[in-house]
Amino acid sequence: MASPRHRSSEKSLTFKININRIHHQSNNCNNWIKKDFENICTELGECPLCASIHSFSFKRLEYVWKWDVSIPQQWQYGDWESIKLFPVHVPLPIVRCEACGKYFRVEPEFLIKGTILTVPALVFVVFTYP
Ligand SMILES: [Zn+2]
User: Fold this and answer.
1) What's the distance, CA 29 to chain centroid?
2) What is the per-residue pLDDT for 78?
């Protein structure tokens, strides 16, 4: 008899951490990383759950990894060695609404929408993924 499938144990690995999200209108990764996250709450609007204004307080930072592509400004077709793909450690502030007590993860827009690939970047991806 074939070995049984462990469907239940597979399922237990896919649990999801349930935290609310707030979007931040930041579409540039480099500017985002340089931010003073202790003061991020001054840039947030109202709480999506209880509609309080300026009720957030900064708690801590979490991080995610994101791939970025670096292409020189005067890049010429065929110059593949000057293109670099590198990981970026992107901070995501965790804030708490002091009015309703809920926690939120602040996510910048560039993470949600994804990186816009230029034509050279797209060509690069095609060449490096056979
Ligand atoms: Zn609230």
Assistant:
1) 9
2) 79
Examine residue 9 and state whether it is found in any structural domain, yes or no.
no
- Please tell me the total count of domains within the chain: 1
Q: Ligand 1 mean position to 98 CA, how many Å?
A: 7
Residue 8 lies in a domain: no
User: Ligand 1 centroid vs 86 CA: distance in angstroms?
Assistant: 37
Structural domain includes residue 124: yes
| Distance of alpha carbon 59 from alpha carbon 41, whole angstroms | 10
Average pLDDT of the chain, as a whole number: 80
Q: How far apart are the C-alpha atoms of 29 and 18, rounded to whole Å?
A: 25
Stretch 92-120: mean pLDDT: 83
Structure tokens at 42: 């001054």
Structural domain harbouring 62:
18-128
Read off the DSSP letter of residue 29. Answer: H
Both structure tokens of 36: 């003073």
Residue with tokens 């793909």: 85
pTM of the model: 0.66
Ligand 1 centroid to residue 56 C-alpha, Å: 8
Q: Which residue has the tokens 């990764």?
A: 29
Classify residue 77: in a domain, yes or no: yes
